[in-house]
Amino acid sequence: MVQTRTIQLIIFCLLIISMQVLVQLGASTNSGDYVVLEPLKEEWENIPPSWDGSDPCNDPWEGIDCNNSRVISIKLSSINLKGELSGDIEGLSELQILDLSYNKGLTGSLPQSIGNLKSLSILILVGCGFSGLIPNTIGSLSQLEYLSLNLNNFIGPIPASVGNLSKLHWLDLADNKLSGPLPVSPGLDMLVHTKHFHLGGNQFSGEIPDQLFSSNMTLKHLLLDQNQLTGKIPPSLGLVQTLEVVRLDRNSLDGSIPSTLKNLALMSELFLSNNKFTGPLPNLAGMNALYYLDMSNNTFSSADFPQWFSTLQSLTTLVMENTQLQGEIPPTLFSLFQLQTVNLRGNKINGTLNIASNYSSQLKLIDLQNNSIDAYTVRPGFPFQIILMHNPVCYEERSEDYCGISQTNFVYSTPQENCLKTQCSSDQILSPTCKCAYPYTGDLFFRAPSFSDLTNTSIYESLQKSMLSSFSPNQVPVDSVSLSNPKKNSEYYLVLHLQVFPFGQDHFNRTGIATIGFALSNQTYKPPPKFGPFFFSGESYKYFEVGSRGTHKSITKGIIIGAAAGGAVLLILSVIIGVLVCQKKRDQEAIRKSNPFATWDSIKDSGGVPQLKGVKCFTFEELKKYTNNFSESNYIGSGGYGKVYKGTLPDGQLIAIKRAEQASKQGALEFKTEIEILSRFHHKNVVSLVGFCFRQGEQMLVYEFIPNGSLKESLSGKSGIKLDWKRRLRIALGAARGLQYLHDHVDPPIIHRDIKSNNILLDERLTAKVADFGLSKTMYEPDKGYVSTQVKGTMGYMDPEYYTTQQLTEKSDVYSFGVLLLELITARSPIVRGKYIVKELRQAIDKSKDMYNIDEFVDPAIPSNMTPISFRKFVDLAFTCLEDAGANRPTMAEVVKEIENIMEIDGLNSCAESRSTSVSHEGTSATFDHPYSEESLNRYNGVTNSR
Ligand SMILES: *[C@@H]1O[C@H](CO)[C@@H](O)[C@H](O)[C@H]1NC(C)=O
Ligand SMILES: *[C@@H]1O[C@H](CO)[C@@H](O)[C@H](O)[C@H]1NC(C)=O
Ligand SMILES: *[C@@H]1O[C@H](CO)[C@@H](O)[C@H](O)[C@H]1NC(C)=O
Ligand SMILES: *[C@@H]1O[C@H](CO)[C@@H](O)[C@H](O)[C@H]1NC(C)=O
Ligand SMILES: *[C@@H]1O[C@H](CO)[C@@H](O)[C@H](O)[C@H]1NC(C)=O
How far apart are CA 894 and CA 892, in angstroms? Predict the structure, then answer.
């Protein structure tokens, strides 16, 4: 018996030692960064399971990369993340890469504060659900090189401030709902180092400004297709010698096309179709790099078929549908050696279609529907399609070879090598290397390929090979890549379905998906040049957990086994020391454990041993040790009752110790009551009691340490924490929930009696916690509805009804809460120089005004993210809480509901608040392991935090 106990104690001691070792190993992520990641984790759904760890850098969180314990990169594509991008992200001051692509569930707008990410060089949010305006602070990202916000729902104009992004290489805002004119001076014209303007698929309007282009520009891809641009193409476009791809199609541009265009010697793809261009066809002779030319559906003046088409040596594709061309097609056109497609539908081409004998070997389609051709000279059996439907040559009842359209259904997908299987048994898919697995999938969109023959399989093979070699297995765990279903969509983009198969297992992990997603979203992977600009639209990967059920657990198990093995060595080494050290402890411990309140009864009027759950009785010596002998450096504040000290438990948990001053000592009974009340609370919005110390001459309460101090300090601006409207709403909600918990979920109910901003504490996530129950009253007879008691509380917050009747009800707390709400708006104490804020505001309010005519009372520190409607509802709520008659005030449950409503109006997710795990005593230590607490302590010592 005695031996088992000794062994138990030895193991206990070793556990403590190894826990301390663990605590020291971990927790090296920069605390400011941690403080940003924690709320993100709270706010987002479907975060990687590895985010359970307490150290994002060293106990690495998937998708996060660090350098010297600073977070430098977040890459989390295609994992079905849901939630919003919180403005707190600004705290990641060393962040260089943010890629959250292909998470449709990421919604809301981009926070203004994103402009404070001074190190950010890559911002990629392709294919998410973001909406709202692009914040103009984006122009403050002075290091930004790569900006991709395409495939979202952004509205409004391009902020002119983008012109300040002097390092920008890539700008992709395509496929949103952006509108307004293209900003210049300041604006896009200043981006002389940018190679890509991908702005298609929006609602931009107005003229393309002449100032936009200059010879200083180095633009390669100018994509403005599918907008509502009007006016002429500015002649200055011809100054941008570096241009390779220009898509201006599907706008309402008019006038004649400037002749300067032909100066652009590197131009390989030019799309001017579906506009309202007039005047003569431009002569583009000399554009010898031109592969793809589409000027369809414009109202050029009638012209004979230009001879210069036949001089464009690189041409693969000529699309001139409805362009008023007339006369005969010169046979030399078809001998351009790379020619694949000629689409001349709906013109006035007449005479004979004469295809020379040395025609291009790549020709696939000559489409001449709706012309005036009355004969053709084509050797029978030509291996490509010719369409002469609706030409005189097809009018007569002759059955001609070329008078119909033969539907060719071309199907392609990367073939399997040496494979006997044809199908996989489960929902897995057969890879090109003949393995069954769960591929990462999505679509590749090529915005301006230089070819038009989609039946040439060697093109897809070259793409597939180049992808595979860029995803070499030592960087990305890719086994094979499959491409399928090539087609042109209505925007004339080439779309290909992509499947990427995992290497060495049947599914990817999140790191693998994020790596591939990033390679495609950041264009780190570059396709062969003939494919031109592209983007990828990935699907959510759903197979992280398949076939690996328990992987996570078995890893954990491995760690435990490893730790146990290590522990065994430690055990042997420490047995002797352990026995010696623990022996002595054991004796003291045993005495204390058997009756922790042994000394209690001996104290007069103590009312018996307190009824406690999970609360520790500390000795004075212990607390002395934890506070470094109640040293000045551990002193963090004081109140009417005495001083508060910070302490550290042996397991690293930080505690706040309230040490009653001689004069303010409570009677033993009151003290005991407080402990009993406190020990019953387990709610994330109520401060938890860790323990107490009670002995002759000392009364101490030991609480969890709340790093960010009181709401009062934050409102006064002392703490350096910025409380914007959103945060204030969250704090109001947290405090209301804490109070509601006391009223409705503690049995018997508790009336706090001293709700005020000093008694609302803020933890590292700015979660509000109701504190200080020194005046709390338990409603032992809740049916009575009130407690008769001597009036206590704080002037300014005190319920006037209670004051006059001496009957304390839950509604007294509601009144104080109403005052607190006004304090959240005004950041003023309720009584200043004899003026009572409640009365002042009540008199000033004019409900016909947008801001109720009390703008001047509003704390100027609330940034403009406050909407008048939520402001008014908030003020209304405060004043119903402040009704003179308690019966007319809402219950705290109703208050909670209303704050949730208000948050919804502001588009805030009040559920994110409730999703947070509730903090129990056992759980609190985890909260304090992390290092932010250290920083908060500095704040307590008067060092202002940089936030
Ligand atoms: C091009 O750059 C030079 C020097 O940086 C500047 O003086 C000039 O005004 C610029 N030209 C245009 C057209 O922007
Ligand atoms: C030209 O306009 C017609 C009718 O709107 C449309 O069907 C056709 O696709 C357009 N052609 C091109 C090449 O855009
Ligand atoms: C073709 O059309 C042009 C212009 O409309 C005309 O001058 C020419 O004679 C026509 N050629 C034939 C062969 O009908
Ligand atoms: C993810 O997979 C790669 C390669 O398959 C592996 O090296 C890496 O350790 C895995 N990461 C995690 C967190 O499991
Ligand atoms: C992102 O892509 C660019 C090219 O588009 C490349 O230069 C850069 O190295 C990539 N960044 C990373 C971190 O891979």
Answer: 5
Chain centre distance of CA 592: 50
C-beta of 166 in contact with ligand 1 (< 6 A) = no
Name residue, tokens 């990367």: 414
pTM across the whole model? 0.62
How far lies 91's CA from each of 54, 88, 450, 929, in Å? 18, 6, 44, 20
The segment with the largest mean pLDDT, out of 69-73, 689-693, 931-935, is 69-73
The rounded distance, in Å, linking the Cα atoms of 613 and 918 is 17
Testing ligand 1's pocket by substitution, the residue of 190, 212, 214, 237 carrying the most ligand atoms inside 8 A of its CB is 214
The rounded distance, in Å, linking the Cα atoms of 78 and 65 is 18
Which has the closest alpha carbon to 106: 147, 145, 153?
153
Tell me: the pLDDT tens digits for 783-814?
677 777 767 777 888 888 888 888 888 999 99
| DSSP-derived 3-state class of residue 928 | helix
Quote the pLDDT of residue 398.
60
Q: How many CB atoms lie within 10 A of CB 540?
A: 18
Report the separation in Å between the CA atom of 122 and the middle of ligand 5, taken as the mean of its atom positions: 9
Domains of the chain: 429-538 (3.30.70), 616-704 (3.30.200.20), 711-940 (1.10.510.10)
Task: Specify the DSSP class assigned to residue 742.
Answer: I
Ligand nearest to the CA of 352: 3
Q: CA end-to-end span of the chain, whole Å? A: 56
Token readout for 90 is 């600004």
Ligand 4 proximal residues by C-beta, below 6 Å: 50, 62, 477, 509, 511-512
What's the chain's Rg over C-alpha atoms? 36
**Looking at 28-158, which runs of residues are DSSP E strands?**
64-67, 70-75, 82-84, 97-99, 105-107, 122-124, 131-133, 146-148, 153-156
Q: Which residues are catalytic?
A: 754
